[in-house]
Design a protein that fits this description.
Blueprint lengths: L7 H23 L11 H8 L41 E10 L2 E2 L8 H8 L9 H4 L4 E6 L2 E2 L9 E3 L5 H5 L4 E4 L6 H13 L3 E4 L3 E6 L2 E10 L6 H13 L2 E8 L9 H13 L3 E5 L4 E7 L2 E7 L1 E4 L9 E9 L6 E10 L8 E2 L4 H10 L11
Parallel strand pairs: 1-3, 1-14, 3-6, 4-5, 6-7, 9-10, 10-11, 11-13
Antiparallel strand pairs: 1-15, 2-5, 8-9, 12-13, 15-16, 16-17
């Protein structure tokens, strides 16, 4: 066999080649390489095999028949529309005391009520009671003023016919003309002014019927005096009771300017109750009087003067009465409330007395306890 020998020169070439080969391997190992999934760790494999996050891939579909939008609409915070509550069945009636929306002898001199109508307007006078009067079914007032456009008059309380707008603007739908002054031209002129404003005028001896929600209310108007005969009144009340569910007697009675009812008046009104009157309300005496329960009948002897153009100021309170009739199987249930009123700041603008000692005193007097308190002192 032939032996190979390496001399020194060949050995040097071999060493140089080995050195160059080692450097090349090191360089190649430092270069970046594209790894395959098999080269990655297990956690990387799980991540790459999951479906892509659709939140980062907006829907590019052109199919309008399918809704693939993944965005969630904001919640609808709009309250659902609801129908207003149905009104309670029944009827509500407000009764005012004596109203004299005029001036002595019809004067329009400075400081009179007739002058105030020109400066303040007709809506001024009952403005502060509209939270009650405008929400009832019927408001009834006792009118004590002659409406006339005559240049001269001898009537104690008179006003131009335009003053009847005080009632129209004050939500008053019916006025009783029970005062004995309503005769002749005084009656026809006043009644015409009211009729033109679609305000019902109830004359002495007349009965008016008002119906709502299967309840029939009879309103009877009369004038009483100490020497008067009440035979016709009793017959009218019996007729009304036979033809209505509830009978209101609204009377004008004057004997003395006193807060104490006269004995003859009490006797007559007790007979009215026995004849079938459900509620009896009085006016005409000029001041507030207490109430009385006679059997099942409520008797209010006087509500006082609610608007009194014959007086420039007053310290006497007045009241209005609210009547609520609710249908029931055995006949309507009656809820009656008295609302004490006074003139707090301005003349001839009655206002409900706020809660407190004064209102409590007036309410106690109306219930028959204590003396009539004075206000605006």
């Amino acid at each position: 066999m032939k032996k190979h020998t390496v001399d020194a020169k060949q050995l040097r070439h071999i060493l140089i080649s080995l050195t160059l080969l080692t450097a090349a391997v090191i360089t190649l190992d430092s270069l970046p390489v594209n790894r395959t999934p098999a080269d990655t760790e297990a956690t990387d494999v799980l991540a790459d095999t999951q479906p892509p996050d659709t939140a980062h891939f907006p829907d590019m579909s052109t199919d309008s028949g399918s809704d693939t939008n993944t965005e969630t609409a904001p919640p609808d915070t709009t309250a659902p529309e609801t129908d207003p509550p149905a009104p309670e069945p029944g009827m509500s009636v407000t009764i005012l005391g004596s109203c004299a929306p005029g001036s002595p002898l019809g004067t329009a001199a400075y400081g009179s009520l007739n002058a105030a109508v020109r400066t303040e307007g007709p809506a001024y006078f009952l403005k502060n009671l509209q939270h009650i009067l405008s929400k009832d079914d019927l408001t009834l007032a006792a009118n004590a003023c002659i409406f006339t456009d005559s240049d001269s008059t001898s009537y104690a309380c008179a006003a131009p016919t335009s003053n009847a707008d005080i009632y129209a603007n004050g939500s008053v739908e019916m006025t009783a003309l029970g005062s004995p002054v309503f005769v002749g031209d005084a009656l026809t002129g006043t009644q015409t002014a009211l009729d033109e404003r679609k305000i019902t005028s109830l004359l002495q001896g007349e009965t008016e019927y008002y119906e709502k929600d299967d309840i029939r209310l009879a309103i009877y108007c009369t004038t009483l005096s100490k020497a008067g005969d009440i035979t016709a009144d009793l017959a009218a009340i019996r007729t009304a009771a036979a033809n209505a569910h509830y009978v209101l007697v609204y009377y004008w009675g004057v004997d003395t300017i006193s807060d104490i009812p006269e004995q003859w008046l009490k006797y007559n009104l007790h007979q009215f109750a026995d004849a079938g009157a459900s509620l009896i309300v009085g006016t005409g005496c000029g001041v507030l009087r207490p109430t009385e329960m006679y059997g099942s009948t409520t008797i209010v002897y006087s509500l006082g003067n609610i608007v009194d153009g014959m007086s420039y100021s007053t310290s006497s309170p007045s009241s209005l009465l609210t009547l609520r009739l609710t249908p029931e199987s055995g006949g309507p249930r009656a809820d009656i409330s008295l609302v004490p009123c006074y003139y707090p700041d301005k003349r001839w603008q009655p206002t409900e007395i706020p809660a407190g000692d004064t209102r409590d005193s007036v309410s106690a007097f109306l219930a028959g306890s204590g003396e009539l308190p004075l206000v605006n002192q």
